[in-house]
Known about the structure:
Layout: H1 2-6, H2 8-17, H3 22-29, H4 37-56, H5 69-72, H6 84-106, H7 113-119, H8 126-131
Amino acid sequence: MIEQKIGFDKVRSQVRSKCLSRYAAARTDGEQYCTDAGEILHRLQLTDEMRLICMFEDTFPAEGFTDSRELLLPLTSESTSISLPTLVILRTTLDTVRKVVTFFDRSKDGVYPNLKEMSKPVAYFPEVARRI
């Protein structure tokens, strides 16, 4: 297989070891070797924009990125409730989403164009966060 031949499987493994959630690890496992120049360029641009944010932007949230899917899964059944610790985690996650969306909404056009475009479909519901 080409991935083993060129060492892509090792790169994927190194990236997976840095993942902070099961979701991120699963996304990493799903990544495939790519030869499409346009796709490679787009991913490099996303990476470079995030690198610049990490280096120079103090207002971008540095924590609160929790994979809440497993916390919310039990709530899909009737007659279940959410625990207080889970509610606190959920509120923190929602606040982080708000900060990320606000960061890109307030960023000047052309500064982080690819990440800004990627953030457009993210919906934030202030009333939900307020009620928590």
